[in-house]
Design brief:
five-stranded mixed beta sheet, alpha+beta, 5 helices, Aminopeptidase, globular, 5 strands, about 30% helix
Length: about 190
């Protein structure tokens, strides 16, 4: 775990934030920094390919740089990096923002994207990223860590269940975007 972090995403020391002693591939989890924007963008594109939406990503590295590290960021990111022959390489990320539950009367964390490159899975990186977010929730008194998972992604379902997460089957995700958003948003003028 990196000891440096911005005020909005403080380093949270928790077990599992670096590779166990004797592990084959050294790694660590840390808050993202502006120089990570290119890799974050690449990881988002890789996730989109995995989720069968390779052409859906419009965000650029500059978009991530502005959103994550601009004057008043509303979204945050932690990255997982491995040690390689050319130095550290970011191979995973958890992109998240603060949510709020009216039922709980407390904030929570919404995990927008969790992704680890396939060749680096099974090292504990996904779990370590989730541990960081869970510890952040506990430390801040947040009551929930939530995310959504595609129905067909059974390996992810199994992984999340192994951590104690439970699906919310009675809820359906709704979205307004593109022309419908413009039409609805312009209907009050």
């Amino acid at each position: 775990m990196d000891a440096t972090a911005s005020a909005d995403t403080p380093a949270v020391p928790t077990p599992g934030t670096s590779a166990p002693v004797g592990a084959g591939t050294p790694w660590r989890v840390r808050p993202a920094v502006p120089d990570d924007a290119e890799r974050i963008s690449t990881l988002v594109r890789e996730l989109a390919k995995y989720e069968r939406e390779p052409d859906a990503v419009r965000a650029t590295p500059d978009d991530f740089r502005t959103a994550l590290f601009g004057p008043n960021p509303r979204v945050h990111c932690h990255v997982a990096e491995v040690s390689g022959p050319d130095g550290p390489l970011v191979v995973g990320m958890a992109l998240w923002f603060v949510s709020f539950s009216t039922w709980e009367g407390r904030h929570g964390v919404w995990l927008e994207d969790l992704f680890v490159e396939p060749q680096y899975r099974r090292l504990g990186l996904g779990r370590a990223l989730l541990e960081i977010l869970a510890q952040l929730c506990v430390d801040r008194g947040y009551r929930r860590l939530e995310w959504w998972v595609l129905n067909w992604n059974t390996p992810a379902h199994d992984f999340y269940r192994s951590l104690g997460a439970v699906p919310q089957p009675d809820w359906t995700t709704w979205r307004i975007d593109e022309a419908a958003l413009t039409q609805l948003g312009g209907s009050t003028s």
